[in-house]
Amino acid sequence: MFEEWDPIASLPTDRPISDFELAVAVAHAILKDRFNPQLQDDPFQPSREFLVNRLGVTENNQRGRAWRGPFLQANPQLDFRLAEHCWRLVGLGYLVPVHSFGQFLPTQRGREFLQTMDPTAITAGGLDGSLAALGFGPDELPRLYARLAQNSLLAGHYEAAIVMLGVACEALIDELAGLLEFVQPEVLPTLRARPDLWEITNSAMS
């Protein structure tokens, strides 16, 4: 799946790329230098030109030329946004600044994260948007505290993020318990608890 990603087909040229799209593009550019694939551990530089080069989009072919110019023109603030994103990953322990802090290399943990990441986790408002898509209103407690949890995480307040996420889960369980009160009584006897590990093991051995 990682090899199949095509930046020209995936990134728009008629508007600035979203934070979600930026996170995906940076992950690909850091993990695989398509411009100089023979180089190992070549640091990533947060600049528009460097990004499109690392993604393998050059002016050596008509398709690349047709995409590259409009993309750069649609993203005049991309250098700043790339630097902001890289420093966010530094704060999370996924990148390390090198060479006077103008370039970045992934840590081992960061490399593993980028290979399998869901950009929602490190995109501001990403978790809130996902919960909105599931039907949670902006003032419902699970979504409210989940939003606070992600904001705390991205601001570097990791302990607060854990607390807020725990409160969001508690609010969700409380909401679920309230809904179960309306389940028809005749349905309840047919519900079975999921067997625990001891029951599964005992059944397999008998």
What is this entry, summarized?
With 206 residues, the protein is mainly α. 55% of the residues lie in helices and 4% in strands. The chain has two domains: 7-121, no CATH class; 124-180.
Structural description of this entry:
The protein is mainly alpha-helical. The chain has two domains: 7-121, no CATH class; 124-180. Helices cover 55% and strands 4% of the residues. The chain has ten helices and two strands. It has helices at 7-10, 19-31, 48-54, 62-74, 78-91, 108-116, 126-133, 141-154, 158-180, 197-205; strands spanning 95-98, 103-106. Strands 1-2 form a two-stranded antiparallel sheet. Strand 1 (95-98) and strand 2 form a beta hairpin. Helix 7 (126-133) packs antiparallel against helix 8 and helix 8 (141-154) packs antiparallel against helix 9. The protein is elongated. The chain starts with 6 loop residues before the first helix and ends with a helix. The mean pLDDT is 86.
* Oligomerization state: single chain
**Strand segment tally:** 2
Principal-axis shape equals elongated
Averaged pLDDT:
86
* Helix vs. strand class: mainly alpha
Order of helices and strands: HHHHHEEHHHHH
Estimated share of beta-strand residues = under 5%
How many separate domains make up the residues? 2
The largest sheet has its strands arranged as 1-2
> Which sheet architecture does the biggest sheet show?
2 strands, antiparallel
Low-confidence stretches: none
